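hiii, so i know i said id send this last week but things got crazy w the move. better late than never?? heres the sequnce for the chain we talked about at the cafe, plus the structure i predicted for it. fair warning i was half asleep when i ran it
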Amino acid sequence: MEVDKSLVGTATPPFTVEVEKGAIRLFAEALQDENPLYRDAAFARRMGYNDVVAPPTFPTNFRPPQRQQWMLGLDEGRILAGEQYFNYERPIVAGDVLECRLHFVGIEEKTGRSGKMQLLVQELRAVDREGRLVVTNGRVVVYRVPGALSEKP
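okay and structure toks below
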């Protein structure tokens, strides 16, 4: 099965992410990042923030509750993570309540050593309570198309 190209331009239903101080701390610990902005609310306030700040890659945690329609029916064993990028309008801080949607913005086909691949370009867009964009997290998913591999009998 290949990805349904007619779904380019669609998005998941909106879902809410409530950014918690504990989640930020755990994420920073997993990164082994000792930056006090991620751990010390008093320090973050002295630096001009309302609370602790989330590390730049924190939106990788923002996942829709259901699988995206364009991913349904695909063999998960053929899916690989590709590149990511983050464009911020402002930092994410503890206490933020963000409305997120994952958008399917494009698909590109390539042929590699292992055969045909489809590169699915997705963007997670998170807006604050006032509807202002906070972050865009671009994600590329690599899908190795079945039958494209030189599989041995």
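btw The chain is about 10% helix and 35% strand. thought thatd interest u
miss u guys!!
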